[in-house]
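REVIEWER CHECKLIST
Item 1: Sequence provided? yes
Item 2: Single chain? yes
Item 3: Sequence as submitted:
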Amino acid sequence: MAAVLKKRALAEYTQVIEPRPVKKLRLVRKASSSNSTILYVGLLERQKTSNDALQVLLRISDSLQFQEDDFLDIIKKLQEHFRREKESAVRVKILSLFVDIGSEAGADVQLLLEETQQMLKEETSHKVIVQGVTTLLRLGKLLHDNVQVHIKLVLATKQYLKDTSQAVKSRCLELIGELLPVSDSSHSGLTQSMLRLIGDYTHSQDARVRAASFKTMINLHNRGLKLDSTIYSEVCSSLKDDYEIVRLAALRLICVLGNTYPENIVVLPDSEGEQLRLVDDAFAKICSSVTDLSLRVRTIACQLLGTMTQVSPKFLEQTLDKKLMSNMRMKRSAHERALEVVRSGEWSSGKKWADDAPRQKLDADSISLVTSGSCGAFVHGLEDEFLEVRSAAVDALCLLSLDNPRFAVMSLDFLVDMFNDEIEDVRIKAIDSLTKISKHIVLRDDQLETVLAALEDFSMDVREGLHKMLAACRLSTNSCLQMCVEALLDNLKKYPQDRRSLWRCFQRIGSVHPELTLPIVPTLLNIHPFFDMPEHDVEDPAYICILILVFNAAQQCSTMLQLFEENTLKHYSYLRDTMPHLVPVLKLGVNVRAQELASVETNTSQFMEQIFSQLEAAPNTTLRAELMEAAQRDLSRLATIDSAVSGAAEFTALFIGSQLLMEQVLSNRLWSNPASLATQQGNIIRTTITTLLQNCLKLQHMFMGLGSVELAAVKQFKLKALALQLVYIVTGSNSSALSLCDHFLLQVEETQKYLTDESVNAETFTSLLFKEMALLEETKPGPVARSVLKLLQTSSLAPPPHPNTSVHMLSAVINEPQGDADSAYKFTAGMVIGIPLDADIRNLRDTSIVRVKLKYPDQQTVLIIPRTSDLRRMDRDDASDSNGTEECSCFRLLTTVLVSHQVWSEAMHVDISLALDVSEAEGGLGVPSTARKVAAQSQRDPCVIDICKPVKVFVSPRPIKRGI
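Item 4: Structure as written out by the authors:
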């Protein structure tokens, strides 16, 4: 028995079981209905309370998705629940849901409009009717070309204008203003009848309805409908309305009518047939509202005044005259009134008190203690107690002065007075306004004194605005110029940080006033006819200002050149070399050679093309590598010589250098050997790969004006660098490569899409990489690295893109703080000290990636995100030396850098520089972009790109003093 069991067991254990074929399941993913609208709509029938139904409707609006076949069922069930529901809030939500459904693809908007109208027929709730009209309005806008549907909606809404609720009337008027046909002449009768109907509601007892009717007229005008000028008198009567919203709407409509019918004649009421142009009368009406009790009305009135440029000069000039007038009425003089008394024979007997009083009766409502008409409107606006009104008045004054030189001269004194306003924004706006109208005005001595007094303002924006204003204005006399120069030099002495702004100001003043500068040149340069005076220090900022003024004036006045001494000519040569954008070329004998060199035409473009033709004609790889090294040196040198092609030369030189660096790594057989990557050679390869990645990011983010061909070349080279990094991480390190692999695959997908969209041919390596990634079954780092390794070992150098002269490179210069300061910033250890930073950044595409980089002596690095308001766009004059780029790409960074550290034994330097942090765009390469501290690492972060040389600041954290 035991033998039988043993035999059976052996048979069972020695039996060979053949594996069954694995069943393959085809998984078909059905559309999930857990979040679909049809499921939630079905739940409405089960809800017992209105609150539960409202919660379901809210979930429908949050997750709105449906199939086109379910559209009718959804609308039917919502409509049925609308009829059953007694709570108005739920019915309002259903109607608002119709708008969301109509905005989705596959929705029948006309059916929704019909169902909405049916649902509103038996409705009594005002809230529901308002929402229904709003739904009709928004759905009607979706059918913007269907005039017939719009007419039906307007006619259907007309009946709701009889509702007692002001909200219903106002919303109906809004729908008429948005959907009433205005361009179709076949429906002109309907349009005119609706206009009369809208005009009737301007007399409604509710102020909100009156304001809505005026807004509807303005909306129709903005859509192209020409309003009738006969409504002008009725609109003017609404300026006396008790409610602010009505006066505001009436003001805007009066401005529209005045600008639309400027030459129409209006007869003034209560006058002997006096006639005025409609634009003049409208201007006077708006001027009267400058003294309104409401802040908003006064502000809007001042803003509207600036848009009425067709007003007569006499009305315009009266806005700056504060004499009392009587609303443009014809008044008899005192002699005429006395003559009438004599003719009537009515003389005072003296027996009764005040028997010689005027016999005429006066209406108390017609007497006003404030000015009327356009008289003194801007005076009241500029003297208003609220800054909104003053600011709007300054803007309007500037707009009206741009095309009216006489009015600009008259408004000069008023704008200059605004330099003393208590609000900084108003002062800056007045300065900017005077700068804009500077072509019409000439500053007198008394006006210039008030202007120069504002140079002592603590605000840098005010001072720099004054510098630009003085550079744009013309001065009247030599004494004015002398006074201006002295005040500007005092400003430089008090605020040394303004020197660059002052240099540009002196440059413009000298070029505009050569005839005024000539008589005071001996005084400015301290020239004596008989004695040799002490030579000035050419590094003195004040002396540089005077030289810039004189040299720019000498460009327009050749007589001035004979007054220059030998040391002045030497200083001219020095400044011409150091500040070529501020000092012009003068016809001096000592500078003939420099002028000849400046006049020689450069052939840098041809030189760059010659370099590329030599690279393309290289017979073998070795000679081509040598030519690329020579091309890199030549292009780097060319970028420092010719600013016109510096961007293209820098881009091409960096691209070629990166290719040579890539070839150097690939030619070393140790880069893919795991045993050798742990040695010192492996550290060199790791550093080289980091440099390659950073060069790719520089090519992508530091250049603007790149075409599709250049961007395609950068993206493909970046793929190659990422592939090299992935192979290195997988082969020679123990760190995880999952995020890097995901980032690499994402870059492959984006590059392929970009090349397809831009119709750019892929390089050999890139096309093979696309094929390998498409055939790859497993997207883990190991298989991806093995497939990429084969391609890297057989890859070759790709030709660099041809130079594009429209390419410009990002650059930055730190003006403050100065790196040569010997005094240290002292603060208590652990606390914070603020260091002012002033830097110019040119050719910047994205301001959100700019960072202030601090590097402490212990190699700790801090990246600080500057505030958005700290980056200010530079004007065209300030950006004139930015290689011809647009002014919108040049910024000035004015911020305060916060420095903090623990106790140091002695004062040491902290490096302050600017950098780009692209870690958000390159999530797989760097750490997230935040204001963070980065500890000293053996490998630097490739996502942090330096864009300027660091400035060393002397810092000394002191220990905390302990009290007794």
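Item 5: Key structural point noted by reviewer: The chain has a mean pLDDT of 81.
Item 6: Recommendation: ____
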